[in-house]
Amino acid sequence: SGPFNVLIFGETGGGKSSIINLIMGRDTAQTSPDQETLAFTHTPYEVSLGSRRFKLWEVSSIESMGFFQTLVLKWRLKKSYKRLCKDNGVYLLLYCMRGSMTERVLVRNYKSFINIVGSTADPGRAPVAAVVTSLEDYPQNMDQWWTSNK
Fold first, then answer.
1. Which of 102, 113, 128, 134 has CB 3.0 to 4.6 Å from 98, enough for a Cys bridge?
2. Please, which pLDDT band fits residue 61 given cuts at 50, 70 and 90?
């Protein structure tokens, strides 16, 4: 069978490219908080972990764009997501978020993305895992972030 598709989403500057580079074990994805990307990068990042193969897809943030650009990108994202589901399926959704973001912004970004790809609670849908970035300067132990932000 083909590789497992993993969609990595979150706001611009949330650490999506850094997570891809960490998983890949080398600097492959360009990291820049000002980088503007399309709904999916043109080339997926392919990696083998153990005996499994994965394709990592970086999904851009669309919240800071204008109305019409957002509308077009949401349509492209939905179309691309449906194509991936039809071809090999989507194995996992990784939500990258900066630990310094407020709960309101984290929930809004998550809901915006889920409204595009559909509820993950439906049977056969990919699960969502959270990846929290930028906790290096967290005032307490990094593990305390989870306790404080349940």
1. 134
2. low
